[in-house]
Amino acid sequence: AIIAGQSDATAYFAFVALTNIPANTTITFTDNAWTNSAGGFAATEGYIQWSHTSIVKAGTVVAITGTTSASVGSLSSGGSWAFAAAGDQIIAFADTWANRPTTASDAKFLYAFSSENFITSGTPNSNQSYLPSALASASAAMTGSTTETDNAVWANTNTVITALSWTNTASGFLTMISPSNKWYQLNTTIT
Questions:
Q1: Are the C-beta atoms of residues 50 and 62 closer than 8 Å to each other?
Q2: Contact 163, 134 (CB under 8 A)
Q3: How far apart are CA 106 and CA 125, in angstroms?
Q4: How many CA atoms lie within 13 A of 73 on its CB side?
Q5: 3-state secondary structure of 93
Q6: C-alpha radius of gyration, the chain, whole number
Q7: How do strand 109-114 and strand 139-141 relate by DSSP bridges?
Q8: Mean pLDDT, contiguous 10-residue spans, the chain (191 residues)
């Protein structure tokens, strides 16, 4: 699950492994919009492919800065990745960009984060996306409108915290992090 997203300064996001991630797994993160049409993703932005050579234990937080730095594992990228301050999304799925999901119910989908709402009608653009139906219970949108939030970190509150611990199931954690009022949000760089 994605637990932080920053579009100001150097783009940054973090995810937490909700279960053990097997060795030699690839997870792709894209800021391309889900179009809700045949073929699925727009191909106007970019993607980051994260991989590792050993098991990543459940509870491990992986921080990704730009397209070249990961606190755990290694990265490759393609297209033009730019988590935009004007609104954007990060959609995660298992596998490479070449083997990306093409239907909204694809089991490869893992999580989606949006700095604004996910749209339900109209044409997506570089700042807006539909939510694939497979992620109905695995997503977080920071607002209920097209007004975006530049930066957000899950905190189980809307104020700054310095430490966090929880005991919960993976599905329970996804339910807990979904409401936008459980995220610390600001339009200046997270420090």
A1: yes
A2: no
A3: 22
A4: 29
A5: strand
A6: 15
A7: parallel
A8: 82 88 97 84 94 92 91 95 81 96 94 89 88 90 74 64 60 78 71 60
> How far is 185 from 148, CA to CA, in rounded Å?
10
Count other Cβ atoms within 10 Å, centred on residue 131.
22
- For residue 156, the tally of other CB atoms under 10 A from its CB is 14
Positive or negative, the CA dihedral 100, 103, 108, 113 is positive
Q: Are 187 and 151 in contact (CB under 8 A)?
A: yes
- Predicted TM-score (pTM) of the model is 0.87
Phi, psi values for residue 182, rounded to 5°: -100, 10
Beta pairing partners, 65: 12, 69
How far is Cα 58 from Cα 52, in angstroms, rounded to an integer?
14
The predicted structure's pLDDT at residue 69: 93
Q: Is 51 helix (H, G, I), strand (E, B) or coil?
A: strand
1, 143, 174 from 28: Cα distances, Å:
13, 24, 19
